[in-house]
Amino acid sequence: MEALCESEASRSQKAVLFNLFNTEVGVALSALRSMRKADGVNTKCMREEFEKSSTFKGVSVSQPGDGGRRKAEVFRERFFVSLADNIERRLDDNGIISAAAVLNPSNWPSDEDERILYGDEKLLAIHKTLAVEAATSPILLKEFHEFKCHGVTGESMRNVRCLHAPSVHSRV
To answer: HSE-up of 134 (CA within 13 Å, CB side)?
Structure first.
């Protein structure tokens, strides 16, 4: 019973870490989108330096006209929204994000017999999408089974878990 409790606790910790990472990605994308209108820390520092001395990192910079300022504002708005959208789309385009839900212990079936095979196909799809050597598939599945049963993460599982990033929109 004690081993089961440790395994449940380990699974719970992993679920918390997965959700924390998911939240961090969401925060990063929100920050990028907010930068279309508001300055981040580095931009504020650059603006302050420019306003004080009309320089940037010691290089003299001329003041843009009204047309140049408006063009820069439009570019800034489009750039940050595009950057966030592009990152989000790239994460979703290859199916890794939705397939990665199998790595989140809170999605696993509570029944041990169901859990042992849960997610194997999606894990192999992630493996294939990432163009990892096919010969490592059996090792990866073995490690995934150990991870689900005992919370033990082998080298192949660590590599898969590090290469994906959860989606901002919780599909798990």
So the answer is: 0
CA dist 144 and 141 (Å) reads 5
Residues β-bridged to residue 42: none
Report residue 170: phi and psi, to 5°: -65, 110
Angle at 21 between CA 94 and CA 149, to 5 degrees: 85
Contacts of 131 (CB under 8 A, 6+ apart): none
Cα torsion 92, 75, 55, 38: sign: negative
Per the CB < 8 A criterion, the answer to whether 64 and 112 are in contact is no
Q: pLDDT tens digits for 72-122?
A: 899 999 999 999 888 877 766 567 777 888 888 888 898 888 988 899 898
**pLDDT tens per residue, range 18-60:** 555 556 777 888 888 999 888 888 888 888 888 888 888 888 8
Closest to 125 (Cα-Cα) out of 146, 108, 103: 103
Is the Cα dihedral 75, 77, 83, 85 positive or negative?
A: negative
C-beta of residue 75 within 8 angstroms of C-beta of residue 82:
no
Kindly state the tokens that stand for 31: 């920050």
- Domain boundaries along the sequence of the chain: 2-163
